[in-house]
């Protein structure tokens, strides 16, 4: 399983990648949408964890771009901005069960990763 983490908070995604690696999960990370797209063009990922609000391209628009490159990729959204509008947009795009509020609980994230990767059908 390969995961791409995308958040403009470098310390957060670096720490998440490290904590996932300690649990046997291979995770790359980037801090912006452009780098995420470049990674997806050269690497294959099963799932991406996207911040809803990242500079220059929203997490929702980034999801759509990543899906063009890998239609089988699954997605989990996260946000530290708990506004109702952000929650509604993210949960509608990802499905409320694949939408997490920061700070993330690593056990819950892993549970959601497993659920997403075991779900049947197209993208989440």
From TrEMBL:
Record domain Response regulatory: where: 2-117
InterPro entries on file: CheY-like_superfamily, Sig_transdc_resp-reg_receiver, WalR-like
UniProt entry tagged with the keyword Phosphoprotein: yes
GO molecular function: phosphorelay response regulator activity; transcription cis-regulatory region binding
Superkingdom to which the source organism belongs: Bacteria
Keyword Zinc-finger among record annotations: no
Cellular component per GO, a single term: cytosol
Keywords annotated in UniProt: DNA-binding, Phosphoprotein, Two-component regulatory system
Post-translational modification 4-aspartylphosphate, affected residues: 51
GO biological process: regulation of DNA-templated transcription
Protein name, as recorded: Response regulatory domain-containing protein
Lineage summary: Bacteria, Pseudomonadati, Thermodesulfobacteriota, Desulfobacteria, Desulfobacterales
